[in-house]
Amino acid sequence: MDIIADEYDENAASTRVDTLYSLKALKNSIVGNPVAKNRVVTDKSVPLVVGWLNATLAETGDEENELLLEKIRIEAAHVVSSLAYDSPSGTLELLRYSSLQALLHAILHLQLDDSFELRLALCRALKSIVVSCAEIVGPSLWGLGREYDPDTKEAARSALEELFQIEALDTYLPLLEDTPVIATSIALLLASSASCWDSPHSRQILTDWQPPGERRERSRDSRGKRGWENSTLLANRDARAGGWVPARLLSLLATRDVKAQEASLLALSSLALRNPNLSSVLIRPLSDPDGVTPLAVILSFTNSRIESLRLAACLWYVSRVLSSTHQILMSGW
Predict the structure, then answer these.
(1) What is the predicted pLDDT for the residue at 5?
(2) DSSP state letter for 313
(3) Which of 29, 201, 269, 328 fits a disulfide with 316 by CB distance 3.0 to 4.6 angstroms?
(4) In whole numbers, what is the pLDDT of the chain averaged over residues?
(5) pTM
(6) Which DSSP category does 228 fall into?
């Protein structure tokens, strides 16, 4: 399936309509079809698809063309998501044409009037690429599953490393406060990337992260003050939850969205792995000293009627035990 070659002609509405249909057909052809995915890799359609992720109109105010362009961007994101799923060759081709950077750029520049469908499609595409990279790095790191060649592993590792840079974190982590559906994609992204990434500081980077506005406020409040005078730090509920990210993941557990709850448990288990500080924080109440602890909330899911939630809660507890064991071993006990 060929993407229209002259899709960048912003004045050709008919060309955009043809491109929309081409992208839909391409998406439908590659879902669950490894042969079709390999064909897309070889026919050089990927750079054209990636280019549409950040397509804009030269002039605003044309609602019909703006809506059409948004649909194209959504379909392009769907194609990226499908191409990355269970396809190392597709993922490498996407990385080769800077799809990760394109998605981060698109998410960073989302507008208030952009549709929920566009936000969700971009987040799912980002999640699919990251999960695929984690599959390439993770199994080969622990000696399980397929072993990839050094160039493939290095490309995936470099993508994950970029994901932990402060500019990238500032782009996608705030989406944990979006709707549960979008937050689920970000939580799954964290569950995969944090569990496979072998840097000893990667999980600490995530638990230490704060939104840019809070970082600026904290810097301003702490200027010229001693530590015990900094009331903002002492009263920080996020700090009592182990950080801004764990606090948002814990809030997902309170939703009635099973997928969001499962993604939150998986992400918390990844963050807790070899992270004894987070594990120890979560055994204390967040507010009332006699209140329910996050540990109790997490363990309550081990009695869930839903198997995936029981397994995710058990995985978190295993990660916590491993973290405690790792701390004992590192202390020379």
Answers:
(1) 39
(2) H
(3) 269
(4) 82
(5) 0.85
(6) G
